[in-house]
Design a protein that fits this description.
The complex is a heterodimer of chains A (259) and B (322). With 259 residues, chain A is α/β, with parallel strands linked by helices. Chain A contains 7 helices and 13 strands. Chain A has one domain: HUPs (Rossmann fold, 3-Layer(aba) Sandwich). In chain A, a hairpin with a 2-residue loop joins strand 7 and strand 8. In chain A, helix 2 packs across helix 5 and helix 3 crosses helix 4. The termini of chain A are far apart. Chain B has 2 domains: 179 residues, Rossmann fold (3-Layer(aba) Sandwich); 117 residues, TPP-binding domain (Rossmann fold, 3-Layer(aba) Sandwich). Chain B contains 8 helices and 18 strands. Chain B has a 7-stranded parallel sheet with strand order 7-11-6-1-4-5-12, sandwiched between helices. In chain B, strands 15-14-16-17-18 form a 5-stranded parallel sheet. In chain B, a hairpin with a 2-residue loop joins strand 2 and strand 3. The chains are: A alpha/beta (259), B alpha/beta (322). Chains A and B meet through helix 3, helix 4, strand 7, strand 9 and strand 12 of A and helix 3, helix 4, strand 7, strand 9 and strand 10 of B.
């Protein structure tokens, strides 16, 4: 069974994010790392391929520059190869533009299953998995917290407001996974070394047969008109507990008349 | 300029319209005199409640037989639009099904979808939506360009629901066309995770626990404290993912957005993901042993201390008051 996992390389979330003053979008010119939320999909894919007794995991990613740092991390976990769509024309892509690129790249890999995260940790639109599925005309299940594959279909426990649903879906399909689906492995030293020689197929928008006008700034159907500081909550009283801090809480609750 | 028609993707459970839908309807009425709803299911069952919230017409697919909503509802919406319906704006809630339908429809109509919004207005002939970024410290306003219908997702509790006292909405059948290869994802069984006490949605007090509790058993302290305060127990994503408590406890961007009178965060450091879901609380009390934890930047009362020491004493003090 062949599985494609969509992965995103993002600015390190531990560093404070910044907007580019000119484009008013998130600055992505520093070092990029593998979005942690994508590591769950990579791990799940590796386990499903293993359970199926054959096949491979292909990563699909896009970036305005030819950044591969995050992809190497996922290759080190065990993915066999990667397709990276890298083109200056991709800068400024919205979720639909992103989905068009990913869908075109996924088609090349002819997968039985496509896994994604539910949302990226920098843009968190959460719509790309469904947009990709829609463009590929495939069925889909979002918010999977458990996945198994058999008899040409994928069985998923899908998170809901009330609990979860058991969902069955014919394959090929697109499934988005939550952070609860599986515990990602740490790349081993051997894995890290092997990742250096694994193939990363770099493609441009033109290679995919896509019109450059449909992606990036050119394809955007939106324009940022204002960026302003939100009304900040002020920090209140901060005290060090020396054994009596609970009394302070009781007093505060009393004042608020919730006791 | 007012919009001529706004659609709201209407969600319901057990015949009751979800709060997020009613919230969006109130805002939709600020934008247009003609607010219509689109529902994946039986429209007649919710027509009265929608009408009371100002909906003139509900487009409904009828029973979908357990199909996940994304594919059939988006297909029915696209078919209605192709058939002449012309909403300027379609509003979706940031829910599981809301995101699915909006994403599918976006691909189908080749229209972008702007997500995570908390506000929307009409400026001249343009629709402008407002999205908070960086954990809510910055607001980004974005204008849709190009032809409609424009698609936007809104966060829960962004607007106040309000009844208009209108009569039942007219029910219009929205036929689901042939779904081709995209159909087929079907729910075979639904599991409801029961929870005790008041719900996160409307409790005056919410007590949430996080990774700082150290182990699953210590969540008992949160439950006990919640019971004493008649509060709803909540949790950070970290301990939901770790399997300590069910997903229905999760407060945050993916989870519940809460705005109680008092929010108590115990052993929660304050990841963006969590803060987005609770920073609208009227008062915030945080207990965390790390003085540098981001949660303290928004706390009205911050206790730098060990939850394993502070919580038992707090519970004891509250029990003593009876």
């Amino acid at each position: 069974m062949n599985v494609v996992v969509c992965v995103k390389q993002i600015p390190d979330p531990a560093e404070p994010g910044q907007l580019d003053p000119e484009t008013k979008t998130l600055k992505r010119d520093g070092k990029l790392i593998l979005d942690e939320s994508d590591s769950y999909g990579v791990e799940m894919a590796l386990q499903l391929v293993d359970a199926a007794g054959g096949g491979e995991v292909t990563l699909v990613s896009m970036a305005p520059n030819n950044e591969v740092g995050g992809i190497r991390t996922a290759l080190a976990m065990g993915a066999a190869k990667a397709i990276l769509v890298s083109d200056p024309a991709l800068a400024g892509s919205d979720s639909l533009g992103t989905a068009k690129v990913l869908a075109a790249a996924i088609k090349r890999a002819e997968p039985d299953l496509v896994l994604t995260a539910t949302e990226s940790s920098d843009g968190y639109t959460g719509t790309v998995p469904e947009q990709v599925a829609g463009l590929l005309d495939l069925p889909s299940v979002t918010f999977a917290k458990q996945i198994s594959v058999g008899d040409g279909k994928v069985s998923v426990q899908r998170q809901t407001e009330a609990g979860f649903d058991d969902v069955e879906c014919p394959m090929p399909a697109v499934v988005s996974v939550t952070a609860g689906v599986v515990e990602p492995r740490y790349p081993s030293f051997k894995g890290i070394m092997a990742a250096k020689s694994k193939p990363v197929d770099e493609l441009t928008v033109g290679d995919l047969g896509l019109d450059a006008g449909a992606v990036g700034w050119a394809g955007g159907q939106q324009e940022i008109v204002d960026v302003s500081a939100a009304e900040e909550r002020q920090a209140g009283e901060i005290i060090e507990d020396e054994g009596e801090a609970h009394l302070k809480i009781v007093e505060f609750l009393d004042q608020l008349k919730v006791l | 300029m007012a919009l001529s028609t706004v659609w709201v993707f209407a969600e319901a459970r057990d015949g009751k319209v979800l709060p997020i839908t009613l919230e969006m309807l109130a805002q939709a009425r600020e934008l247009s005199d003609n607010v219509e709803a689109f529902h994946g299911g039986d429209g007649a069952a919710i027509a009265a409640e929608l009408g009371a919230h100002g909906v003139t017409k509900v487009h409904a697919t009828g029973d979908l037989g357990g199909a996940l909503l994304g594919v059939p509802v988006a297909a029915a919406m696209a078919a209605a639009i192709e058939g002449g319906a012309a909403p300027d704006l379609i509003m979706f809630g940031t829910t599981y099904d809301g995101r699915d339908v909006a994403g599918r429809l976006s691909a189908k109509l080749d229209r972008t979808v702007i997500t995570n919004n908390v506000g929307v207005s009409v400026d001249g002939d343009a629709i402008v939506v407002v999205e908070p970024v960086f954990g809510g410290s910055t607001n980004v306003s974005t204008k849709f360009s190009g032809p409609g219908p424009h698609l936007a997702l809104f966060r829960p509790k962004s607007f106040e629901p309000a009844e208009t006292g209108g009569g039942a909405a007219e029910v219009a059948e929205a036929a689901v066309p042939d779904l081709g290869g995209a159909g087929g994802a079907t729910v075979t069984e639904r599991h409801v995770e029961e929870r005790e006490g008041p719900s996160l949605d409307d409790a005056a007090v919410v007590v949430s626990g996080g990774r700082g509790l150290g182990e699953a058993e210590k969540y008992d302290m949160i439950e006990t404290l919640a019971k004493l305060l008649k509060a709803a127990p909540g949790a950070s994503r970290a301990i939901v993912d770790a399997g300590w408590v069910p997903y229905s406890y999760q407060v945050g961007q993916t989870g519940k957005v809460v705005k109680p009178t008092v929010y108590i965060a115990a052993g929660i450091s304050g990841a963006t993901q969590h803060m987005v879901g609770m920073k609208g609380s009227k008062n915030i009390i945080a207990i965390n042993k790390d003085a540098e934890a981001p949660i303290f930047s928004i706390a009205d009362l911050g206790i730098v201390g060990d939850v394993h020491k502070v919580l038992p004493k707090l519970i004891e003090a509250l029990e003593a008051r009876g």
